[in-house]
Design goal:
Helix content is 44%, strand content 0%. With 52 residues, the chain is an all-alpha fold.
């Protein structure tokens, strides 16, 4: 589109952190169940030491 600026935020995870997340998600969630958005967000909050 003409006149529309596109803004991109920097990636939230570095390559190493993305690899950790991929590995963690290949197994069961900490409670033994399936991963869902809330559980991933909780994991990312701990990994990044910030609110996601």
């Amino acid at each position: 589109m003409v006149g529309v600026e596109t803004c991109f935020a920097p990636p939230l995870l570095r390559d190493q952190q993305q690899g950790q997340l991929d590995q963690i998600l290949s197994g069961p969630a900490p409670d033994g169940g399936l991963w869902n958005g809330r559980k991933v967000a909780d994991y990312l909050c701990e990994l990044l030491v910030r609110i996601v």
